[in-house]
Amino acid sequence: MTPAVSYPLNKVLTAVARQHAMKPALTDEDLVGHTLSDAERAALKTGDIDALYRLGANPYLIRRVFRARFKI
């Protein structure tokens, strides 16, 4: 089953991806001004890629922002 899409979550990931930054986790500073659920905020702050996917984050954006968490 495909997870629902979360516009606010993808908006945050897009903003970070546009900075061409790889991060192990996001900070409060990265999340300022974004309306997120507690679960979305926690997943971003811990870099929990499984939770981000389940919450509706775009897989491409997850990979782009949290690239260091993916072993190649």
Q: Which stretches are poorly predicted, pLDDT < 50 over at least 5 residues?
A: none
The largest sheet is:
none
Q: Using DSSP, what is the number of strands?
A: 0
Percent of residues in helices: 40-55%
Q: pLDDT average, as an integer? A: 90
Q: Indicate the proportion of strand residues.
A: under 5%
Structural class by secondary-structure content? mainly alpha
Principal-axes shape call: globular
The Cα radius of gyration reads 11 Å
Count of runs of 4 or more consecutive helical residues: 5
End-to-end Cα distance, whole Å, is: 26 Å
The SSE order reads HHHHH
Number of domains: 1
Topology (elements, then pairings):
Layout: H1 7-17, H2 28-31, H3 38-46, H4 49-54, H5 59-65
Helix pairs in contact: 1-5
Describe the structure.
- The protein is an all-alpha fold.
- It has one domain.
- It is built from five helices and no strands.
- Helix 1 packs parallel to helix 5 (59-65).
- The protein is globular, with a radius of gyration of 11 Å.
